[in-house]
Queue: 4 jobs
Job 1
Amino acid sequence: MIERQQKKQRMSRVVKHNNTIYLCGQVCADATKPITEQTQTMLDKVDKLLLEAGSDREHILSATIYVKNMSEHFAPMNTVWDAWVIEGHAPARACVEVSMAREELLVEISVIAASK
Amino acid sequence: MIERQQKKQRMSRVVKHNNTIYLCGQVCADATKPITEQTQTMLDKVDKLLLEAGSDREHILSATIYVKNMSEHFAPMNTVWDAWVIEGHAPARACVEVSMAREELLVEISVIAASK
Amino acid sequence: MIERQQKKQRMSRVVKHNNTIYLCGQVCADATKPITEQTQTMLDKVDKLLLEAGSDREHILSATIYVKNMSEHFAPMNTVWDAWVIEGHAPARACVEVSMAREELLVEISVIAASK
């Protein structure tokens, strides 16, 4: 009834239940990079996880986006985000300013998606 | 299987799947106003979206409330919130302090609800 | 269709719908204590609520953990968390830095779980 993928002790990267998929918080591939590249590589990881979970970018239900500094990062994050979202398939979304697990992380995303 | 309403490129205001409704983060109608009016007009928008989604205030499952300044805004936000919630139908709730997309925003809410 | 437990005017501690359980944000039992004890007593409360809801620690789907100060609290919170999670049953997780409802609170958790 619950399927967990890429299980570690601290968290599972993917948890499926009731045709709904919960991803663990995704950050960039390289935190030395500026916000646009952090956002793009973060979204690349979301794509990869969703494909492995039997879903895809068109099936995202809800996304919570965390940015480190709203005045600096909101606009460039949105530019990358808006280009990534499939027209007509945008999720519900909230975006707030917080600090993340490492000082150099500028953006993180929590995703809930539907199974295909 | 997924129904999206009020779709824009960046986000859909309402996403329905599996009898569950995800609303995009709602803020006030007028950010020049103090916290009580920001909270009330934010909750008015939640009411409107839920009705459009075929649900209502009695069917909220979970709410995450973001306030800009906990010591200033928590008590007055709660006064408006407590009066708005239908007795016996309160959702699960968490409330944390963050900054939001615009400097003048004092409160934002993420809602998950059930279809009627 | 929606079952609410431990209902108060402001929030219900447990909300069940569609085999999914939403817990209200849980904090420690005693906020004068350091982060390790705050984390442990917070997780004890999650255990208790999940049991009362007809679920348990093995059925958590998603957890959002809020810590007050990432550089001080992330490592000790994780030590307690890692020991608490049942091997092979870790939820999806995100952890961000925010302030909470009271100044002395160092950690809070939002949980979505599956019914057994």
Job 2
Amino acid sequence: MAQINPTVGDIARNTGLIKSNIHQAGESGAQLVVFGELALVGYPPKDLLLKKQFIKDNLIALQDIAGVCTDCAALVGFVARHQGDTGKALYNAAALLIDGQVKSVYYKQLLPTYDVFDESRYFHREISQQVFEFQDTRIGLTICEDIWQATELTSRPLYDIKPLALLSRAGVDMVINMSASPFVMGKHEFRRELFGGLCRNYQLPLIYVNQVGGNDDLIFDGCSCAFNRQGELIAQARDFTEDLLIIDTDSRESNRCEVLKTGIASIHAGLVLGLRDYATKCGFKTVTLGLSGGIDSAVTAALAVEALGADKVVGVSMPSRYSSDHSKTDAQQLARNLGMQYLTIPIEKAHRAMEEMLSEQFKDRTPDVTEENIQARVRGNILMALSNKFGHLVLTTGNKSELSVGYCTMYGDMAGGLAVISDVPKMMVYELAEYINREKEIIPSSIIHKPPSAELKPDQKDEDSLPPYAQLDEILKRYVEQEQSTADIIAAGFDEKTVRRIIQLVDRNEYKRKQAPPGLKVTSRAFGSGRRMPIAQNYQPRKS
Amino acid sequence: MAQINPTVGDIARNTGLIKSNIHQAGESGAQLVVFGELALVGYPPKDLLLKKQFIKDNLIALQDIAGVCTDCAALVGFVARHQGDTGKALYNAAALLIDGQVKSVYYKQLLPTYDVFDESRYFHREISQQVFEFQDTRIGLTICEDIWQATELTSRPLYDIKPLALLSRAGVDMVINMSASPFVMGKHEFRRELFGGLCRNYQLPLIYVNQVGGNDDLIFDGCSCAFNRQGELIAQARDFTEDLLIIDTDSRESNRCEVLKTGIASIHAGLVLGLRDYATKCGFKTVTLGLSGGIDSAVTAALAVEALGADKVVGVSMPSRYSSDHSKTDAQQLARNLGMQYLTIPIEKAHRAMEEMLSEQFKDRTPDVTEENIQARVRGNILMALSNKFGHLVLTTGNKSELSVGYCTMYGDMAGGLAVISDVPKMMVYELAEYINREKEIIPSSIIHKPPSAELKPDQKDEDSLPPYAQLDEILKRYVEQEQSTADIIAAGFDEKTVRRIIQLVDRNEYKRKQAPPGLKVTSRAFGSGRRMPIAQNYQPRKS
């Protein structure tokens, strides 16, 4: 079970990785090595798939890999051409490589088109015989979505066939699933329950190999695993890191079974991996971020240090006339605890210059959010200048609660290349802080315990503008993740005025999220490619 | 033929619009009034479709509309529920409303999943009988994509059925197509050729009703039309505006046939419509933009004045120490010609403040693009402050050539709510300027004839960094719109080094485009939802 971390589009590098895993597996006595979905091109390749040369390069690389499969066979995910006259020109496919050749090719049967998935944009779907004989074992092959069909766990079945039922009818001894299944909190527990149930139901053992690594907004957690026909776990690869797990399909005892992270520890590990991979796959060696003395930037800094090392992270304090003393000392203490580089660049000069430049235009107007945003945008300009000059990736530090209601400034605190915690609700940010401090105080407790504030005007507190975060997060979860209606949420016992106000804020701030940097997905529904809302729209639910 | 401009999601407003068109058509003696695809909810509704309440509201509204169909029948596009056990829960549907009731419902047969379309994300596809009898005429009903199947005009057929062939076999007297077909240059000419050929081929008359109006990045041009069975045009509605065209399906002579705009005039009309609708559907009354004295901002300003009126457009000159005198006078002259409001806010104070604030960090470094971006971001901050204070929509002025190669500054000149000409290549910007000046000089000729410059450092010219635009645009068209490979483009006779450099720039600047505001689509492939590239990727075509 070769759980590798491919780079999207980097066929040369992925080929090398696949070959070295085949070599290593063969050396360890493996007879068949299984890779994840589209391992050769990395998942998701998106519109790179529309380049003919890209498809050709991937086919040449597949032949190249076949050449090393002399002692050990391999199942490799790749993009096949669909030769038929009608339909999409490609298949999401897997090749069985034996004796130096591509022996046979199998196709994904179910193409997901929901959340972040757009597979029918690229791939043709063809119901085909997905069985091959290997060393006297009849193996049924499936790719990712093909086995996500259990009506008891998911909602309405989306497809008209059940590949596992077909394989069961065809009489196979074992099922293999090659996946690129993105992480969300609780996903591996969910998979275990789902897969265990499927194995029991069909009385078939299952080998599940998943991709690992971060690709843009998606984090793949790995967690490849195997089950016997009783649905018992018989092997478990690592989470959030590459792994090559050699298993004996006959003997449960001899296999390695890693213990996996759960809950907030898994979120932490996922974010660290997503951040590290985004930076390195984009070619950045260092990152920078603003340190406000608040909890969001503290958690983001700690994640960055964990991902890249303290010497690769530059924290920048950018105090204004409204910054409290504790903000500055807290930020400095945090940087010291993390051992990261720390700069202070006060924004007063540019802040005052902007006020003077706009004074004539604004002379008859009372201060409002405009003056707050100006400060945030001066800070954005500073961080981007440091990025341009020194080649740092700028990390933004906004959480999901703020981004949901638009409590953030475009081109200000939203300026940067990666939104590390933009899918982490505020209450979960606190959990992350506690987790980061599990062994010793890294994030100063004063940062954790002070009331959140943007410090963009005197004595400002988040809760002057927003309901308490515990309440806000619960409403947002229902509205954004669960698609509950206003009426549903009010019926669940939340204050009507608050619910209506929050929902209006979420709807009205779509334009801000349109321009947000990619954010690492950790919940079942993140902003970004998994939530595609029109901006110029005006849906007002009918009053019943 | 009711060519209406619905607002996405605004079921109440769209219902009113549909009812008033039915009323007016009935008054004019029409027996059947046909609306566009999903007219009731506006196209594309995107993830609003995932809200159960939204679907329910749309069904209630459909009943409401049926109630007014007493004298005149109507075909209305709406979202139907799919009652089956498996598959997506919705249909892209059309209802035949007669005698105050929903008499029958028809479904879209072919669901596009390419370019900007994601219909299999939402809709179930079901092959069904799409024929109804109306006043002794057997009518075959199709929805948009259902008739886009001509193998002679498009590439590889994407679908396994041809709805027109099925209808022809079922023996219909006429075909109706209800559409929401986005504008790109040359689209209506293409449609006429395609539809005329289909009518001749199947010996069937066709009535085609399209949506009109701008919805986010998409512009719908209307251009509804009708053909007889010889493929001759027998009626033509207006382009880029609402229209209610009453036609006699038996008599070619008595029908209205509008002359449509072509070429650059159609681009101009499309951009004006897209800009006006984005602003008004988002609730903005006024817009602002930076006037640099260059051609991009001049064309954008002229489009804005055309769309909203001169009193609704605020041009802002933000000269720096590098701005030439002619830039300032040209910008002022442009504003005077257009009759728009004109402000001057020099950026020197904030520019100098930023330099001072960063001087310690930058002290051992030579100036580079960093210093240029700082100025652009000060300007972005000014425009956004004016937007925040006065409620203007900020228009960005970058063209497609710049956006392609990243010759633009995030949070600087890319800051704003709508990118008006971001799908217009630079050479086409010149054509637009000539078109705008077709009757009198609105854009000063000095703006048109000076060499393009960002004026972010002394004596800067675009062509110091980029190849001549005529050449750049041709390479970009091949790479971005036509998906040609590096090798293809070089083989077509372009300089290898230039081609490789341009393609590398396009690929490397995906992160900038990720954060760009929505841009109005006018070419066959725009950046945005029609081009979905991964950011953290590293595809390098194999050297053959």
Job 3
Amino acid sequence: MTRTDDAPLRDPRLSIEQTRALLADLATLLGPERVLTGHDVLHQHGTDESFHAAAPPDAVVAPRSTEEAVAIVNVCRAHGAPIVPFGAGTSLEGHIAARRGGVCVDMREMNQIVRLSIDDLDVTVQAGVTRRQLEARLLPEGVFFPVDPGSDATIGGMVSTGASGTMTVRYGAMRENVLSLLVVTPDGELVRTRSRARKSSAGYDLTRLLIGAEGTLGLVCEATLRLRPTPEAMSAAVAAFGTLRQAVECVIAVTQYGIPVARIELADERQMEAFNHHSGLDHVVAPTLFLEFHGDPQEVAAQAAEVHRIAAEHGAIDVRTAADESDRRALWRARHQAYDAARSLRPGCRVMTTDACVPVSALVDCVLQTRRDLEETGLDGPIVGHVGDGNFHVTLLLDADDPEEVERAMGFHDRLVRRAIAAGGTCTGEHGVGYGKARYLEIEHGPAVVRMMRAIKHALDPDDLFNPGKIADATVLADEVKPAG
Amino acid sequence: MTRTDDAPLRDPRLSIEQTRALLADLATLLGPERVLTGHDVLHQHGTDESFHAAAPPDAVVAPRSTEEAVAIVNVCRAHGAPIVPFGAGTSLEGHIAARRGGVCVDMREMNQIVRLSIDDLDVTVQAGVTRRQLEARLLPEGVFFPVDPGSDATIGGMVSTGASGTMTVRYGAMRENVLSLLVVTPDGELVRTRSRARKSSAGYDLTRLLIGAEGTLGLVCEATLRLRPTPEAMSAAVAAFGTLRQAVECVIAVTQYGIPVARIELADERQMEAFNHHSGLDHVVAPTLFLEFHGDPQEVAAQAAEVHRIAAEHGAIDVRTAADESDRRALWRARHQAYDAARSLRPGCRVMTTDACVPVSALVDCVLQTRRDLEETGLDGPIVGHVGDGNFHVTLLLDADDPEEVERAMGFHDRLVRRAIAAGGTCTGEHGVGYGKARYLEIEHGPAVVRMMRAIKHALDPDDLFNPGKIADATVLADEVKPAG
């Protein structure tokens, strides 16, 4: 594996002449009107929702079929041009920054639902289908797809970041809910990573390798997803606690009783203020759990009653149950607006989002230390958490024009990540590495693991064309990591 | 990736002098009494429970610590000796055959439970801990590990084959239940693939890559596993149907109602005869589902009642409920003895086990075609299935001294695998590839996927020392695949 480390870095960018030749071939393939090079469109496609510096590509193209996607990849290969897959642009660690230029492949025009099997409880969709589009299609069929990140991401993007969401505690993240992928490899070939069988032991798990690979190992064109039957009944509850410790200990108890909660989310006092402020609500301003129960009506009632009892035992000061379906939906709509709610506390602010995840037993100490650090550093940051998984986000509200405050926030973030890793956790529970977290990979995994990752990348993409400068390859460029200016 | 294909095959075996030098260094490391080279021990360690030809290693060593495991790997690396990890020897596709000689690393002396956290519902065990050993340790703690292959495999072996079992339909297989691995890499370094956090998006998923890698990418020393709280209540039922189609359609209906059955297993008429014969039972000889329900007492009763209703709607001719806990245990003990029961139908026979897995919607046709093929080919083979996952096994009962019958069985097996792949399924649902299924990898996945697998193998183990001649690398040796003589 030493070969990889010794390999010289390739030329960072195509020359002007090389780029011109690339664009000409793309125009021949797609027609000139489908090769976008305007300033605004390039800038938009190099910018995600993160705090990291954007980097526009040299061109944006949007394939309309798998055949076009294969052809685009092969044109890029012929020109040695980087390929940066693009979904909804909602990633949070600089995943879509075209750090070496090249071609942004915007997958949003490939948005067909290819095949739906209710008997097999699976669906095959093109990469550009969005989470909400899929939800709407599945609703009348009595089935749903349980991975729900906050934004309306594309399925291809969710595959590539290994997304999770509020229901992961019960139904798993993308890695547990993707059966198979159709991918254009760095060799320019179209492959299906796996059969549609529910289980398989037929060789290395390329599906899981590509999930969370952030477009560095291939271009995802289609995904086959596991579905779940829509529960007959659902109910929701909100429980406020005297202290954060009580709230988290309640979660541990609920888990140990084996109560299959569908959602169990934490918001701290500051986040509750944000919800009240943003949505005109009147929640108690205290550490709060948002819960949801799925099952048949008896099961849901039994789960809710048992959780009510456990919450009371753990010092809940206020427990409210959603009265009906519209109440339940309103509750989760509010929860999904955590980001916007937090922003509303400081109009015009710039947001930096953290993503630590630790073993649940370490969560209370980690969150309390984080809150203390926020106070000592003089920063404002509501906290929300997928607490059943030990994953929490601080939404730092910053004045981007104040370099000293930004500097303080960077220091805070660095301490937070190191604290999570020291507690047996990870620098990223669900947002991924992009280039924003690249410097932490070696701290978290050690150099040998990063060398393995780099060896895999080099073996599958020896010319380093697929989303270069991300994940393990980004570590060589770690000094370039800086906030947007 | 073409590099890999062009690479010459390395010398298949060490010379006698090279082997002598290897054994001397192992003896220096461990003491001569711990380097086993007796004929019987070598033969035993090169023989699994499959139909494939065994291949003894040149020596067997059993590390007692991770440090010793690292040192053994590095001695083997220094001598260019193949390393074949060994667990309980219960694999079914020739996984442990030392096809190029070398050192069998028997992990059974590394059988400590390293750390157990009830708060986090996880446990870290050494690779040599067996499934039943872990079960016994967890029982008094009120938690369990839900992956239960038929044999008393080691956890390291279960990791390496990507094992599943009767509860996979509810709780997932190894890929859904392993958090992290401690592994000696082909570079001779000790790495932990991942943190202990419940979720992570921190780079390529090396954990899942190593699960099912069958020892070809490293030596698994420890695994950190997710646990589940023991359900408050469990109950079991057996439902016999007029036809196989009715039984499978009942399963599809149960799944679509979202009833979280913990187990739902199929046995065909011939397998039911075997159970009755072997265990002195009096089951109706008809296609039968074995079911188990987990939850609190109300949930379990409600699930059982609903499944009873669905089974009746689908033509169940006899439904029995396990009266109490000992009845429930007896029922599953019988189910777990399917293999021995089948063998008892033809004393002295030799067994060939198949492992096809198809989308559930294709299962009825696939099983019916398989049964017809059995009849037309004049073979005896009871069928059991993890039917909720679409996975079924034919236990072919053969006279090993009759080469013509063996030949017919090989032909039957080949047709079965191709039928499963054509139906959107896989050649192996849970037994793995070893070298027995190697010829089907390209048929199932296409050549580009096999090239990717080979490129990953070559990147991580460029000298091809870890369990050579298995999975994708076995395809180059496919003509060597033959039944034991």
Job 4
Amino acid sequence: MHILIIGAAGMVGRKLTNRLVADGSADQFTLVDVIAPETPAGFKGKVVTRACDLAEDGVAESLIAERPDFIVHLAAIVSGEAEADFDRGYRINLDATRALFEAIRREGMKSPYRPRVVFTSSIAVFGAPFPEKIGDEYFTTPLTSYGTQKAIGELLLADYTRRGFFDGIGIRLPTICVRPGKPNKAASGFFSNILREPLAGQEAILPVGEDVRHWHASPRSAVGFLTRAMSMDLAPLGARRNLSMPGLSATVGEQIEALRRVAGEKAVRLIRREPDPVIMKIVSGWPRDFETKRAAALGFKAETTFDEIIRIHIEDELGGKIG
Amino acid sequence: MHILIIGAAGMVGRKLTNRLVADGSADQFTLVDVIAPETPAGFKGKVVTRACDLAEDGVAESLIAERPDFIVHLAAIVSGEAEADFDRGYRINLDATRALFEAIRREGMKSPYRPRVVFTSSIAVFGAPFPEKIGDEYFTTPLTSYGTQKAIGELLLADYTRRGFFDGIGIRLPTICVRPGKPNKAASGFFSNILREPLAGQEAILPVGEDVRHWHASPRSAVGFLTRAMSMDLAPLGARRNLSMPGLSATVGEQIEALRRVAGEKAVRLIRREPDPVIMKIVSGWPRDFETKRAAALGFKAETTFDEIIRIHIEDELGGKIG
């Protein structure tokens, strides 16, 4: 079993690779990203790592010429950058995705080839105003170029699957929380910062009110969604190949209460309130809650309390200890 | 006022041109299609007609270099052909549409330019299974490559509009009935054939049962949708720029009853029943009914009885007389 992961150097890509190595069912990995991904520790099979730009002529073809059995496409220009650089966003998020799908179709014209394709989409395909909960049949009216590019990728994935060129599934990830690493400038960063930084004894800034509600899942759940998407029978999906993943709808206030329960008042006191009208406005257009019946019926699972999300961070990132 | 119509040689394109000439507000037309459109009779202003392929390098740029105030994009490879020829469908229905939108954006980078763009989409963006009525917030899960390409065009239109590159609106047309001309091989052809042919004293074949329900509007309504989309204020649409148009939900049996009322038993006897399982299967995946609240609130109107649809055909195509 040969697995190709595109975007393997990112946070989700690295965690997914490690999980797949631990599972032990793959005998070959091809790991690509714009910077060369690390070779996973403890893997006995063949590993090729490669730094490349999927949007460049011939790159998708060269990756697909090896006929991987599974292709996980995680690579993307993130929301803020796709909004700031229109051409670059469309080039990477749309053209490169289409080049990948086309390379698979053309490989299959030489001799039969129908790999599993797992595409990571995003709840950014939805745009306000929203119903109380976004159901499985709600329309995609993105309010960013990034969300537009992901929604187009979903449509292409469904059409290429329907035509039999590959066996595809699109996974709309919730916001990943607690995201490990340093605080960054993403507008959504605070959802993780206000937990991760206090757990490490550091101060964090909260730019919005405690009543802000959003849709979360842990990095461990995100990896679980992807491995399930790789291994499950996709026939029950029919022609509707894109799924909103389960998650936890919680307010910032509920996040803070969970932090208090898990790490105590000392941690909570490290959250500094600095209201930022720009971030407040951006966040007000984001989804707050979903009803993900299809994904639930298909066995996808996420956390049900924020205490659990915080404990997963402590286990997976902090060696089980609060700093 | 300079109006560019792409796909001007088609049935809707010709009728739209004639209506706009009669309205008298344009002083210049550029009419393009894969075959050169006819110069409209009785127009005093400047008319350029041109046979060209919008997907070819430089064609979109050359059309947009003239800075038309209104751009109506009707050109498309139809459903059956886009399904039979995957490359050609994506090239014309997706790449050419994107080339047009990009040409407008790039023209606007030279000096401010923000034309009105009217894009014709289709109810083919929806795919079965459906609710009883398809509402304005129902998701697009096309079951054809044509429907996929139209849904992608809608997403691009909304994003280019949101970014301020043009002022766009996407119009999802119902099936046009009664379509003038000869019977053709389109799977949907019989909806028009069973009315048009008997009205002309000719036999017509009905390949499905009388209980088949579908969504219709006259050619006159289609032109009305487009002229309204050209002239109305689009600000109330916000970011949601694509609209299902109103229509008439009717069964084949209701169509036949209307024919009986308008043209008598003699016409109805010209319908020959020849059940065709292939056409039955295709039609079973098509939308049957819609609830088009947004379009109605914005003043878009269609026929409310099939008698009216038939009378419009008699007035507009048969000089007011039944043959």
